[in-house]
Task: inverse folding
């Protein structure tokens, strides 16, 4: 979508709703829909603008390098992680999704990112329709308390994701 | 530091129906050194040593491929799913950055 389209959409939106009725909530919803400046990346760093702005620089760069300006839908992915990990060296991550796994329409890649690690990219797993289900369990290392992100890429190029915070009491990268 | 590198365990369900989507649980012994850790005795950095490539073949087809980094835990445990629609061997190959190749094959026999 071009920027002009956005401003049109925005104008229409404002016309329809009326300025007075634009509540704080819809303003924040609007800003997460319209990418502007840093929020291009931020649109998939978290459901809200504040969360996205709080994401550290290296994860922004990493996600941008991996996915460009494509949007991530924050739906259709379930991720199970511990709320508190006593040992950052072994954090079990369980990702699953009910997205279709048919020929021509399947989840082709599952990515795992951890914001606060030296390299936020942890692993990716390429799948095929022969897997039957888009799911993955892996034990990962976390340097410190951080957001853990799972992003699924379908064969059609759509991106789905989710993120959760894991509190780490002992870091897991050695040193 | 764990004893022995490349010990592999693969766990499948006891009975598999044809067409069933099964969980394949895999475990391999590997230190997965990050390169950041310091040896307490020698005070030297332990060089990075980790598995970065995992391939899963069902029959002759590559069905799953994984790229790992240092941030996968030591003795990596991974579960993925597979649609058991044919009688065929399931071969899993792990490769580490020092050229180590570890592999194991199990038979998938749907009833």
Result:
């Amino acid at each position: 979508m071009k920027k002009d389209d956005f401003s049109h959409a925005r104008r229409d939106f404002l016309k329809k709703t009326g300025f007075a009725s634009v509540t704080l909530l819809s303003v924040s919803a609007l800003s997460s829909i319209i990418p502007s400046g840093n929020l291009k990346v931020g649109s998939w760093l978290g459901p809200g603008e504040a969360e996205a702005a709080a994401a550290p620089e290296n994860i922004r760069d990493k996600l941008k390098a991996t996915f460009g300006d494509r949007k991530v839908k924050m739906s259709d992915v379930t991720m199970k992680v511990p709320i508190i990990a006593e040992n950052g060296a072994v954090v079990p991550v369980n990702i699953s999704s009910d997205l279709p796994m048919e020929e021509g329409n399947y989840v082709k890649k599952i990515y795992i990112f951890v914001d606060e690690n030296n390299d936020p990219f942890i692993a990716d797993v390429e799948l095929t329709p022969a897997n039957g289900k888009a799911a993955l369990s892996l034990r990962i290392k976390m340097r410190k308390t951080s957001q853990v992100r799972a992003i699924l890429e379908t064969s059609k190029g759509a991106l789905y994701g989710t993120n959760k915070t894991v509190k780490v009491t002992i870091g897991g990268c050695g040193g | 530091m764990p004893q022995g590198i490349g010990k592999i365990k693969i766990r499948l369900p006891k009975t598999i129906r044809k067409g069933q989507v099964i969980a394949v649980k895999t475990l391999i012994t590997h230190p997965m050194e990050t390169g950041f850790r310091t040896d307490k005795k020698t005070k030297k950095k332990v060089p990075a040593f980790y598995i970065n490539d995992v391939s899963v073949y069902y029959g002759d087809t590559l069905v799953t491929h994984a790229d790992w980094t240092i941030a996968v835990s030591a003795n990596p445990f991974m579960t993925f799913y597979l649609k058991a629609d044919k009688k065929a061997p399931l071969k899993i190959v792990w490769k580490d950055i020092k050229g180590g190749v570890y592999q194991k094959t199990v038979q998938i026999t749907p009833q």
About this structure: Strands of chain A lie at 72-73, 78-80, 84-87, 91-97, 107-114, 121-126, 134-140, 146-154, 159-170.
